[in-house]
Amino acid sequence: MEEKNNKNNSKINRRDFFKLAGVGTFASAAALYGCSGKNNRSDSESAALGEIPIDKMVYRTNPTTGDRVSLLGYGCMRWPTRKRADGNGDEVDQEAVNELIDYAIAHGVNYFDTSPVYVQGWSEKSTGIALKRHPREKFLIATKLSNFSNYTRENSIAMYRKSFEDLQVDYIDYYLLHSVGNGGIKTFRARYIDNGMIDFLMEERKAGRIRNLGFSFHGTTDVFDEILAMHDHIHWDFVQIQLNYADWRHASGNNVNAEYLYGELVKRDIPAIIMEPLLGGRLSRLNDHLVARLKQHRPQESVASWAFRFAGSFPKVLTVLSGMTYICLLYTSPSPRDRSSAASDVYKRQVLSGMTYMEHLQDNLRTYSPLDPCTEEELALLEDTAQVMLTYPIIPCNDCKYCMPCPYGLDIPAILLHYNRCVNEGNIPKSSRDEHYREARRAFLIGYDRSVPKLRQASHCTGCDQCNPHCPQSIDIPQKLQEIDRFVENLKQERL
Q1: Does 257 map to a domain?
Q2: What residues have CB less than 8 Å from 27, skipping those under 6 apart?
Q3: What is the pLDDT of residue 479?
Q4: Do 236 and 335 sit in the same domain of this protein?
Q5: What letter does residue 371 receive in the DSSP assignment?
Q6: Do 384 and 474 lie in a common domain?
Q7: Which residues, 6 or more positions from 375, have their beta carbon under 8 angstroms from its beta carbon?
Q8: Considering only CA atoms, which of 325, 350, 277 is closest in space to residue 104?
């Protein structure tokens, strides 16, 4: 297994890299799109521009159906919620969702990705309500067979049919086998082969109720190879993979290098749909050293735009998924220096996997309105940046929240993300003799209490292991939580 999995770490020479990426066409593509460095903008300039262009979104054509798919796809994993009027828990803020989808469609986004398990099971229904207000030809809907725990044929078909009911559609444009690879090939066969579901879904595709059939992948090379080998029989219309400039050659955990995944799809002429272009927000929250490297080349562009340009630069990429959470950040706002304390809570809300301010969101959307593909020099810079990132002990959490809810109330993603943020900021002291020990200690502990309520911190982990099977990054979550808890206690007791 070890030898086979090393296939994903294989290197290709620089010329082959650029050939695979289609870099030879980038210069002409840039001229065609009419984009160059003149599109670079500072944050304040972006804010002053207000609304983003509504008629310049880049579209890719699905070779099977002829669909024109917006290069920026809308991930519906984290719809905004609010407290119920009766005080009994939360509910989706449907008005906010409606506004978000209206805005996205108005600005050229037409691909919407959801699942039966997103937003505590509310995403499909909420997405369906919002999209129903638009003509069916205005949007492409993607959802998934998320039969993780009960994959009997009866339950799987019931989940499939419930998606139609909740989405209020007669057909689904892109239907995925969800998170294939977790549990290995044995689990894949149990979820989709042995129960006859893949045959059922192929018949549904033939009947037109599914227009494109594919899968999202988190797993090892051998599993990917075996599932892709079924292409001759099943005919995968698309495959959703994790691709960004860090995972291109340096995927963590049991994930496979995107260079290998994308290359195998190219060989078979299978379009790729991209998830995690920002690696759970990590590529938008680089440390100062790495930010300076990127700003030196494009001083007026956001750090996140580099990640989106990278993902969009590959010609076999059909769409790149990202989430947008709060409508208040989508409209014209004051510049950073003019923000009042009254508005501070609004601007702390996250959009686009860690994008914080409206101008950052606009910058991100402008990345594909139109696309300025990465040059050879820029791809080389991003590879160098990824190699530097390897030197930082980041926990590969992408904030997908598949580990939630924790039965003991822990906020697992918040704990891991706070730790990662402190790593990036240099606030992980190794010894009390470190030059900035006091500052780092204070920043970590105060930030920890602000980010995670005490009753939801790592100290309350029992090691029950209920979270581990759901993590697509194959993180040993209880182990990491115990390590963080020990680190916190050592900081508190000043035992480093």
Answers
A1: yes
A2: 375
A3: 93
A4: yes
A5: B
A6: no
A7: 23, 26, 27
A8: 325
Distance of CA 436 to the CA centre of its chain: 34
163: left (phi over 0), alpha (psi -120 to 50) or beta: alpha
- The structure tokens listed for 42 are 């500072």
Task: Report how far residue 367's alpha carbon sits from residue 22's, in angstroms, rounded to the nearest whole number.
Answer: 18
Give residue 459's identity as a one-letter amino acid code: S
Q: What's at 441, amino acid-wise?
A: R
Tokens read off for 326: 């709060």
pTM for the whole structure: 0.79
Q: What tens digit of pLDDT does each residue of 392-411 get?
A: 888 888 777 878 889 999 99
CA distance 416 to 407: 17
SS3 378: helix
Where is pLDDT greater, at 129 or 419? 129
Residue 364: pLDDT band (50, 70, 90) is: low
Residue 75 CA from chain centroid, whole number: 8
- CA-CA-CA-CA torsion for 189, 193, 194, 196, nearest 10 degrees? 160
Residue 23 pLDDT: 45
Q: Are residues 370 and 421 in the same domain?
A: no
| Among 55, 28, 33, residue whose Cα is nearest residue 365 | 55
Domain of residue 35, CATH code: 3.20.20.100
The DSSP letter of residue 64 is T
**Domain shared by 191 and 68, yes or no:** yes
Per DSSP, 331 falls in state S
Q: Look up residue 248 and give its amino acid.
A: W
Residue type, 204: E
Strand extents, DSSP E, 316-459: 317-323
Residues of the domain holding 30: 2-389
- The residue ranges of DSSP E strands in 130-233, in sequence order, are 140-145, 172-180, 210-217
Confidence of residue 352 (pLDDT cuts 50, 70, 90): very low
212-228 per-position pLDDT tens digit: 999 999 999 999 999 99
In a domain, 402, yes or no: no
**Residue 394, in any domain of the structure:** no
Q: Which amino acid is at 157?
A: I
Q: Which residue has the tokens 């190879």?
A: 225
Residue 11 has pLDDT above 70, yes or no: no
Quick check: 351 pLDDT over 80? no
Residues 6+ apart with CB under 8 A from 429: 436, 437, 440, 441, 444, 491, 496
Q: Are residues 200 and 309 in the same domain?
A: yes
Is the domain of 321 the same as that of 434? no
| pLDDT, mean of residues 189-209 | 97
Mean per-residue pLDDT over the chain, rounded: 82
Q: Same domain for 373 and 489?
A: no
Give me the pLDDT at residue 20, please.
54
Given a cut of 70, is residue 29 above it in pLDDT? no
